[in-house]
Design goal:
Maltokinase, kinase, nucleotide-binding, binds adenosine-5'-diphosphate, transferase, alpha+beta, 497 residues, globular, glycogen metabolism, binds the ligand O=P(O)(O)O[C@H]1O[C@H](CO)[C@@H](O[C@H]2O[C@H](CO)[C@@H](O)[C@H](O)[C@H]2O)[C@H](O)[C@H]1O
Length: 497
């Protein structure tokens, strides 16, 4: 980091705050519930935060030097030892006209003694200097006691300055349950409370309602059983804008199996047994479940019809995403003209009048959980790399279908990636598995009342390409060893234009 901003955090004062009361249980520890106390702690924490942030999976600024850290809002949620500090922090990259930044949500624990049972990756380090000199600063997501405190705030619907905790009516939340950090590979951080609740803490924060809350609430209110019911959420009002969603508490699905794991389990057994169980039945049911969710969203949220101008914007956006992806992964350049050709086949003849609506936005097998009652969909946040306003725009529902089709391809390709060398027999089995399940999913989607994907092949191809382009960038940034998976799909899709 070249420079750490020294600007003051906007800190919340308690209404009854008068004399600055030190509330640490022993001298030198604990957040003071005073503006000065919080600012001092935040300033001491910044150097530790700047070294720790780039090590976190959810941090989107990897590979770009941090040019400044600016505290946005700091709120002490528990005082004493341990203490809990909620912090929204703006992270800046670059300087001058090229400067950019993101706001992140941090939940910081402070203990005078190093916390036990917390992995080294969750410890930011020891605070150096000031009132908190020597205390350990750590990611409180991993502290069952402190995440239990967060659940209490959600259960009581507390309010601290601009932070509001809100319950859905009749959610009857328990308190006094310690939380355990989820070990799932994810874009945010989740905390699980025994077998009943899961709290997702959004890490990268934009002003406005997160689509995960917006859509999950709409589906919950419509009585849909295809999502885990929303129990509570919390948000923060950042200067004059719509409240920004910070966390979402939903019912935990203790008996659920992740669709990605189920699919991988099947493809792993393909070699010994070309038809190991019939995942296609599940793929068909998943298609039906997707259609059901789309129908509820179309009924309860705004829809529109594509006109010529909107079709033009759709194509242009796909071209722009392709161009910026070429900038990140130059290996895409050789496909650019064929892929643009596929986008340009989206004309008014094919698409004028097509309904657009709110959709999941980043559907894949890992977002689908098979429960004893059927498939349930998770994580309606959309693609984390897209700006929030873009993620909230109505889209062709088939975008979700195309995304799920890519996921069947990923599961099959994952098998090949694990093979010691080229294996034509395995390649044939894997591609037949993907084709079978893709077809079953589309058939289920149509049977469930969704638009038949086969009726608009140009749109499906363009949407699949658009998703594969996104995946190329995603893999280059997060899992470079997986990059060949979407690149192989691009190669295949480019050949069909
Ligand atoms: N309600 C739930 N019940 C059971 N497991 C869940 C639930 N919500 C999320 N999970 C698990 O947590 C993982 C990550 O959740 P997700 O909402 O996709 O987070 P992110 O947006 O951070 O990627 C899921 O893949 C799933 O394994
Ligand atoms: O679940 P997230 O919201 O974090 O979504 C991101 O990560 C996904 C990977 O975990 C990524 O999905 C891609 O990889 C999947 C296999 O791991 C595959 O099934 C999907 O089809 C593929 O897109 C998703 O794109 C990304 O936004």
């Amino acid at each position: 980091m070249s420079e750490t901003s020294r600007s003051q955090a906007h800190v919340h004062r308690e209404p009854s705050e008068g004399a600055p009361a030190a509330v640490g249980t022993r001298p030198g520890t604990g957040v003071r519930r005073t503006a000065a106390g919080v600012s001092e702690l935040v300033q001491a924490a910044l150097p530790l935060i700047s070294a720790w942030l780039p090590t976190q999976r959810w941090y989107a600024g990897k590979g770009r030097a941090i040019s400044g850290l600016t505290p946005v809002v700091g709120t002490p949620l528990q005082v004493g030892d341990p203490a809990l500090l909620h912090l929204l922090l703006r992270v800046e990259h670059g300087g001058g006209a090229a400067a950019s930044g993101d706001v992140y949500q941090l939940l910081l624990g402070i203990r005078s003694q190093p916390p036990t049972g917390i992995g080294p990756g969750a410890v930011l380090g020891r605070l150096d200097g000031g009132t908190y000199d020597g205390a350990t600063l750590y990611d409180a997501v991993h502290d069952p006691e402190l995440t239990g405190r967060l659940l209490e705030h959600l259960a009581t619907g507390d309010r601290f300055g601009s932070l509001s905790f809100r319950r859905t009516p009749g959610s009857g939340l328990p308190s006094n349950i310690p939380g355990r950090a989820s070990t799932a590979e994810q874009s945010n951080s989740s905390v699980i409370y025994d077998t009943s609740l899961i709290l997702k803490l959004f890490r990268r924060i934009s002003p406005g309602t997160n689509p995960d809350l917006e859509l999950s609430l709409a589906l919950s209110r419509a009585g849909s059983t295809r999502i885990p019911r929303v129990a509570a959420w919390f948000e923060c009002r950042l200067e004059r804008s719509e409240p920004a969603t910070l966390g979402l508490l939903q019912r935990y699905l203790p008996d659920a199996e992740d669709g990605w794991e189920l699919a991988l389990d099947q493809v792993a057994r393909l070699k010994g047994d070309p038809s190991p169980g019939n995942f296609a039945i599940e793929a068909h049911r998943l298609g039906r479940a997707t259609a059901e969710v789309h129908r509820v969203l179309a009924r309860t949220m705004p829809t529109a019809r594509l006109d010529r101008a909107a079709i033009g914007r759709l194509v242009e956006a796909m071209e722009d995403r392709l161009d910026s992806a070429v900038g990140v992964v130059p290996g895409l350049l050789r496909y650019r003209s064929a892929l643009r050709g596929a986008f340009q086949q989206l004309t008014a003849d094919h698409l004028e009048g097509l309904q657009v609506q709110r959709i999941h936005g980043d559907l894949h097998l890992g977002q689908a959980m098979r429960t004893p009652q059927g498939w349930v969909l998770l994580d309606f946040e959309g693609e984390p790399a897209k700006p929030l306003a873009e993620r909230r725009l109505p889209q062709p529902a088939l975008r979700d279908v195309a995304a799920m089709l890519r996921s069947f391809d990923y599961a099959a390709a994952h098998l090949l990636a694990g093979a010691p060398g080229p294996d034509p027999e395995l390649a044939h089995l894997a591609s037949a598995w993907a084709a079978r399940n893709r077809a079953a999913y589309c058939a289920g989607y149509t049977a469930g009342g969704g638009t038949d994907p086969a009726a608009t092949p140009e749109l499906m191809r363009a949407l699949e390409i658009d998703k594969a382009v996104y995946e190329v960038v995603y893999e280059a940034r997060h899992r470079p060893s997986w990059l060949p998976i979407p690149l192989a799909a691009i190669n295949r899709l480019a050949l069909t234009v």
